[in-house]
Structure formats: C-alpha cells, structure tokens
Specification:
Layout (H helix, E strand, L loop, with lengths): L14 E7 L14 E7 L7 E9 L2 H5 L6 E2 L3 E2 L6 E2 L12 E8 L11
Antiparallel strand pairs: 1-2, 2-6, 3-4, 3-5, 3-7
Length: about 120
C-alpha cells in the first residue's frame, strides 16, 4: 500500500514519518489479508508522544487527500501504539492499489487551541 508524502498530524508538536506497510515502504504484492501498518513519531518537545491515532485507507490518492477512507477508517483509537496496526477493512482484491495515511493526536498539547477530540 502506498502512502502520500505527508500524513496528518492533529498538532504540530508531533511529526509522523517512516510510514510502512508490512515493514516495507510502498510495497507491491502484499500477501497478507490484513496488512499491518507502522509509523514513527518525531518531536522537539520533551516527553511528547501519541495518545491517539486514526488510519485511513483509500482506493485512490484523491479520495485519501479528501480525508476519506473508502477502504477503511479506523476512527479515532485511543492508543500510543504505532506498530503492527492491522488493516480491519473489507477484502482487498489481488493487484489492487491502495493508499493510506495516519492522523495522530499528541499526548501533551502545548497550545490552548489544540483539539481535544
């Protein structure tokens, strides 16, 4: 599954990078029925981390850029986990190209305007 150049971040305190599917970057020919996703987080703030995430998987880049997960939308998941997140959408067809991204919420938000949802 391919990922766009930038994934969404709910606050600028965290930067999502290193998106992988089944431990590969933009892999072709995934044999898993429920591929697993992972990402890395970078922050210049001390003790910053992820408190929640949302994974979107779409059948086209345009759909994904519109923030629509037509293949799968995990919804907001309260978790600091960013490894081995299993795809939980409908069946994927052989040879089907999909795109994904992740949105994360920071554990600590330094700005009063940060969303709480």
């Amino acid at each position: 599954m391919a990922q766009p150049e930038n994934s969404s971040v709910a606050q600028s305190a965290l930067v999502v990078q290193g998106l992988k599917t089944e431990n590969g970057i933009n892999p072709l020919g995934i044999g898993a029925l429920h591929p697993r996703f992972r990402w890395l987080l970078k922050s210049n703030e001390r003790a910053q981390g992820q408190r929640a995430y949302q994974v979107l998987v779409a059948g086209s880049l345009e759909t994904l850029q519109a923030n629509v997960g037509d293949k799968w939308d995990s919804g907001k998941v309260i978790s600091d986990n960013s490894v081995e997140i299993p795809y939980n959408g409908g069946p994927l067809a052989s040879g089907e190209k999909c795109y994904w991204k992740v949105r994360v919420w920071a554990r600590r938000c330094p700005l009063p305007s940060c969303p709480s949802t």
